[in-house]
């Protein structure tokens, strides 16, 4: 089980969680990301949606500028290994590796252990429910719903 995550720079218990939902790479399909973004908003979180075709550098810059608590990456193109690892590398380079990441999309089960080893906290493949995603986030931050 994950240890509850707490960022030092603000009390997330008093403010809504700020979540960045991003679509890295050339993937132009954003229906799932939009559904998750709306569900997180409906659950009381503040959501920043980057839109499609973002570079890892753009995602990291936005995450830092928006002072997010969490990053959600969505990838359907098959480039998840390269794109997600680059986001992690850039977060580390910018001193923002304390921002946890979750991911969703068409990600083969064989790739999941490596992505988690890189630092992705959780991966939601096709068939995952919105409730599972929200529950994961609440557990990660130990926030009561």
Pick out its properties:
single chain; 145 residues; alpha/beta; five-stranded parallel beta sheet; 5 helices; 5 strands; globular
Helix and strand arrangement:
Layout: E1 18-22, H1 31-42, E2 46-49, H2 56-65, E3 70-75, H3 80-93, E4 101-105, H4 112-118, E5 120-124, H5 130-141
Parallel strand pairs: 1-2, 1-3, 3-4, 4-5
Helix pairs in contact: 2-3
3D architecture notes:
- The protein is α/β, with parallel strands linked by helices.
- It is 38% helix and 17% strand.
- It contains 5 helices and 5 strands; from the N terminus they run βαβαβαβαβα.
- The chain has helices spanning 31-42, 56-65, 80-93, 112-118, 130-141; strands spanning 18-22, 46-49, 70-75, 101-105, 120-124.
- The protein has a 5-stranded parallel beta sheet, sandwiched between helices.
- Strand 3 (70-75), helix 3 (80-93) and strand 4 (101-105) form a beta-alpha-beta unit.
Poorly predicted regions: 1-10
By DSSP, the count of extended strands is 5
The whole-number mean of residue pLDDT values reads 90
Share of helical residues: 25-40%
Which band does the percent of strand residues land in?
15-25%
- Category by helix and strand content: alpha/beta
**Cα-atom radius of gyration:** 14 Å
Major sheet, described briefly?
5 strands, parallel
Q: What is the approximate shape? A: globular
N-to-C series of helices and strands: EHEHEHEHEH
- Please state how the strands of the largest beta sheet are arranged side by side: 2-1-3-4-5
Query: How many helical stretches?
Result: 5
Measured distance between first and last alpha carbons: 18 Å
């Amino acid at each position: 089980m994950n240890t509850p995550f707490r960022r030092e720079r603000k009390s997330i218990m008093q403010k809504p969680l700020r979540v960045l939902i991003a679509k890295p790479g050339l993937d132009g399909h954003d229906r799932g990301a939009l559904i998750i973004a709306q569900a997180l908003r409906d659950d009381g979180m503040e959501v920043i949606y980057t839109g499609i075709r973002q570079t890892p550098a753009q995602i990291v810059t936005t995450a830092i500028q928006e002072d997010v608590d969490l990053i959600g990456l969505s990838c359907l193109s098959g480039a998840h290994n390269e794109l997600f690892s680059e986001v992690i590398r850039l977060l580390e380079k910018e001193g923002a590796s304390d921002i946890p990441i979750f991911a969703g999309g068409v990600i083969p089960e064989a790739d999941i252990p490596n992505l988690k080893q890189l630092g992705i906290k959780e991966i939601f493949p096709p068939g995952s429910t919105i409730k599972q995603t929200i529950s994961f986030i609440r557990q990660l931050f130990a926030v009561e719903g």
